[in-house]
Amino acid sequence: MYKGFSKKTKRLEQLINKKVSQVFEQSGVETISYSSFSVLEYLETHQDSNVFQKDIERALSVNRATASKMIKLLTKKGYVSQKTFSEDARYKLLFLTDTGRTLYQADVKAASNLDRFFNDVLSTEDFEAFDRMYEKLEKELSK
User: 3-state SS of the chain: helix, strand, coil percent to 5?
Assistant: First the structure.
């Protein structure tokens, strides 16, 4: 039986987060949470359709309170805007602002720098092995 897996993955998460912060700082990009980035990404990739909070909840697998909190914060920072839906005033359409789009694009560019770092450290075989382990663990943990 393998021991220490949880401890090692937690340590690796800490080290990766530290590296992410370093790369983003060097790129001059504001570091935002993965969840916030995911909201910006969803809005960017779905800009041609009506996007509501429920769509964010489903896409990110988060509850209503969490989605509301994220959207409220991103709106306050000026990255997301909300507009009353003309067909039902109870609903708010969500949009990526120009500031949010600029941040999203800068984050994508900084993430490319991060990918280059990992490509310098790991081989193709390492990535393939990681993908196999990730898929196996993700499948079991998602049950």
Answer: 70, 5, 25
